[in-house]
Amino acid sequence: MTSAYSGHVLSTTQLLLRWLRTFPIESLTKRPDWLANCALWHAGHIAGNRRAVGRLIGCDLDSPEWLVHFEPGASGEAAEDWPNLDQILADLEATADRLSTCLDASEAKLDAPAERILGEGTGTARENLLFLCYHEAFHVGQIEQMRKLLAS
After folding, report:
1. Number of domains in the chain
2. What is the reported pTM?
3. Which H helix or E strand runs over 20?
């Protein structure tokens, strides 16, 4: 079962890298008025999301200081101290490889009780992992929609 999760991480990463590399660089920090966050924020948020996956399965992923800019509720307005696209892309590639390896080795840990990431109470690490896979795919979709909207 964990190979499905690691496959998700790897395939989502490939889509994300392709879309971000073709995103007009001048538009990475722009956003339509009706959206709260720009594409670069979504990419940084996915990088932070991967740390949550790592914590669920006991996978040690270093956390760059710049991740604080992409936490839930953080401003989606680009700031001078944000990382550049290359830094985020390098992080996404590195964490995809590390998470894939950890996920393949963590089947027994997924049925352990875990505090819910969303909502209250406890569930299992597997339930949280399913939510985080959905959450990551949501943000990848937001990036692609912005790429299309801002290109027109």
Report:
1. 1
2. 0.87
3. helix 2-21
